[in-house]
């Protein structure tokens, strides 16, 4: 049986199961900006896929999903017939940042479970979930992801891009109310890449402007390397906390083999950043902590069986490297 479970829905979902059967459970993180741990009381999860791509199966008691990520797991009905909680709660990597530390639940219900006596309510068994800041569990789970067999990863690279990722603080726009600017001292939080914060065009989309030759909608000077090199995961100068607003793009040739290093930064606070690539799946060839060093970290690349995904969770105070072939013409968005 195939079961779809959306983490972030309102209400308590009851998932029926028969003893002895195997179910495919597709878990989707529908939260806006919160990675989540997920587990089922007394049950093991065999991970077989992520983001609609197959993975080499492995068994775990807990999975972690960034916003928008999906994970396919097999679950066996091999426990005494009863009711068991399926639970998820936040993985919070940003230091000193408020977050929702509640736990959301669904119920795995064995159809053959005995009914409680009249007037008696039996609570389902609760799983043990990692601590909200358990980065070690996140890392161990991420390192377990592999493609089922050898895959064709681009070995030669035509476009080698390096994007720093971080939060930022902008001055509150004059037409905004104070509750719309919840950063320190009345500022507004903003995301940025290579110190550029994307500004959405007002009337014409970037792709329309490109095809129709409309001028003034975007520029083609998005930096392919950080404009300023610094200790990305160390103490960052406050002068870098306010990114430059702009509608900037980088042009890629059709068929080019692309590598992107995604580097987390300590701007405002380090954080595990989920990065989605619109219109593409890609291979995650390496992840690590600290500042990416091509001289030593390239040796860690997995070019044999890396996982294919469409969303990568860039480690807090760390980096991830993805590779893909630019063979889907159009506008490609990198979004957090």
Brief descriptors of the model:
mainly beta; 6-stranded mixed β-sheet; 3 helices; apoplast; glycoprotein; hydroquinone:oxygen oxidoreductase activity; copper ion binding; oxidoreductase
Distance between the termini: 33 Å
Pattern of helices and strands: EEEEEEEEEEHEEEHEEEEHEEEE
Give the uncertain stretches in residue-range form.
none
Radius of gyration: 22 Å
Helix content bin: under 10%
Secondary-structure content class: mainly beta
Number of helices: 3
Number of strands: 21
Strand order of the largest sheet: 12-11-15-20-17-18
- Overall shape: it is globular
Sheet of most strands: 6 strands, mixed
Percent of residues in beta strands: 35-45%
Give the averaged pLDDT, no decimals: 91
Keywords: Apoplast, Copper, Glycoprotein, Lignin degradation, Metal-binding, Oxidoreductase, Repeat, Secreted
GO molecular function: copper ion binding; hydroquinone:oxygen oxidoreductase activity
InterPro entries: Cu-oxidase_2nd (IPR001117), Cu-oxidase_C (IPR011706), Cu-oxidase_fam (IPR045087), Cupredoxin (IPR008972), CuRO_2_LCC (IPR034285)
Main location: secreted
């Amino acid at each position: 049986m195939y079961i779809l479970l959306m983490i972030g829905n309102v209400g308590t979902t009851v998932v029926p199961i028969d003893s002895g059967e195997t179910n495919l459970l597709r878990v989707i993180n529908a939260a806006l900006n919160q990675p989540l741990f997920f587990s089922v009381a007394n049950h093991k999860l065999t991970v077989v896929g992520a983001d609609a791509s197959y993975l080499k199966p492995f068994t775990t008691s807990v999975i972690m999903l960034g916003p928008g990520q999906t994970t396919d797991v097999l679950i066996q009905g091999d426990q005494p017939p009863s009711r068991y909680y399926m639970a998820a709660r936040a993985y919070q990597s940003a230091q000193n940042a408020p977050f929702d530390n509640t736990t959301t639940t669904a119920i795995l219900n064995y159809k053959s479970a005995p009914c409680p006596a009249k007037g008696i309510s039996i609570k389902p068994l609760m799983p043990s979930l990692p601590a909200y800041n358990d980065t070690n569990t996140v890392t161990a789970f991420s390192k377990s992801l592999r493609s089922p067999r050898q895959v064709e990863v681009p070995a030669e690279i035509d476009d080698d891009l390096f994007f720093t990722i971080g939060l930022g603080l902008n001055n509150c726009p004059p037409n905004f109310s104070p509750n719309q600017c919840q950063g320190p001292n009345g500022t507004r939080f903003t995301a940025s890449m290579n110190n550029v914060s994307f500004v959405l065009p007002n009337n014409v989309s970037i792709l329309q402007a490109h095809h129709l030759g409309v001028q003034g909608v975007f520029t083609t000077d998005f930096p392919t390397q950080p404009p300023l090199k610094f200790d990305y995961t160390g103490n960052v100068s406050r002068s870098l906390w306010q990114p430059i607003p702009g509608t900037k793009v980088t042009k890629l040739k059709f068929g080019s083999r692309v590598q992107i290093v995604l580097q987390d930064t300590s701007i405002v606070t380090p954080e595990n950043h989920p990065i989605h690539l619109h219109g593409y799946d890609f291979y995650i060839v390496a992840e690590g902590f600290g500042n990416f060093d091509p001289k030593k970290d390239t040796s860690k690349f997995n070019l044999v069986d890396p996982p294919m995904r469409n969303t990568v969770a860039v480690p807090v105070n760390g980096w991830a490297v993805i590779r893909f072939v630019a063979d889907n013409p159009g506008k490609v968005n990198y979004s957090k």
